[in-house]
Amino acid sequence: MEHVRLVIITGLSGAGRSEAMRVFEDLGYFCVDNLPPNLISKFAELLQKSPEVQGAALVMDIRGGVFFSELQGSLNELDASQLPYQILYLEADEETLIRRYKMSRRRHPLETQGRLVDALRKEKEALRELRGKADVIIDTSGLTALQLRQRISDVFRLDGTQSLFQVRLVSFGFKHGLPKDADLVFDVRYLPNPYYVEELRSKTGNDEEVDQYVMRFPQAKETLDKLANLLAFLIPQFQQEGKPQVTIGIGCTGGQHRSVVFANRLKDLLTQAGHQALVEHRDLDLREE
């Protein structure tokens, strides 16, 4: 008998847990919101006796109050059981969380007489240890609801590919900030920049002319070979650790040319090597003037 896939959804208030739960429901998971931590092991026992349930998702957050402090003990009990689980941790930067709370006109669970920013920082500190135990961390700061849905679906969908380890390649521009959920970040700004070639400036790394320009330089070819070799070594290490996904950021100045070329090239190489590789060009819509 196959185990039920159990996912614990947690993270910062305002980071998208409610939206995430809707995604899991659409994926066919049985979902429970704000279950007291001391009931997790009992819930797990019930799951093991319910063959019709393929997957279950639990939303755990700071609303649990004193119950939340019991979560670690409940996770220890779960570790000792026969049911494996994963933790999905959602976060966003402080500015984004403040903006979302102002738009929703809702009060933060820890906001009493103090400021919202103080409540956000208190919650972040309270969840620091739990974040360190997470299997998947998603920063929702720059994500639309559709992008969040796709990210969750890519990792947690209930089908024949759900157990495959996934490599997510993200091209980005350093001028727009690092991808906060990246496990590894590589910088290719030292390579010749197509932005300074007039006929290539308005194009992107998805265009054949830009790809050929970037890769005609010996240092670009050598960089690609060395990165491919490094990933060939590192990816099995992540797999052994039990992570379902690793996120690799490839950055150039604006996220339009060099990083896009390298993300695409690495995706192709990893796919050829038998890995399930996904590519996301984070800053491609932020056109250079």
UniProtKB/TrEMBL annotation:
Cite the binding residues for GTP.
61-64
**Which stretches make up the RapZ C-terminal domain?**
166-284
Gene3D superfamilies referenced in this protein's UniProt entry, alphabetically:
P-loop containing nucleotide triphosphate hydrolases
List of residues binding ATP? 11-18
Statement: the UniProt record of this protein carries the keyword Phosphoprotein: no
**One MF term in GO for this entry?**
GTP binding
Which parts of the sequence belong to the RapZ-like N-terminal domain? 5-157
> One short Pfam family name for this protein?
PapZ_C
- Keywords in UniProt for this one? ATP-binding, GTP-binding, Nucleotide-binding
Q: What is this protein called?
A: UPF0042 nucleotide-binding protein
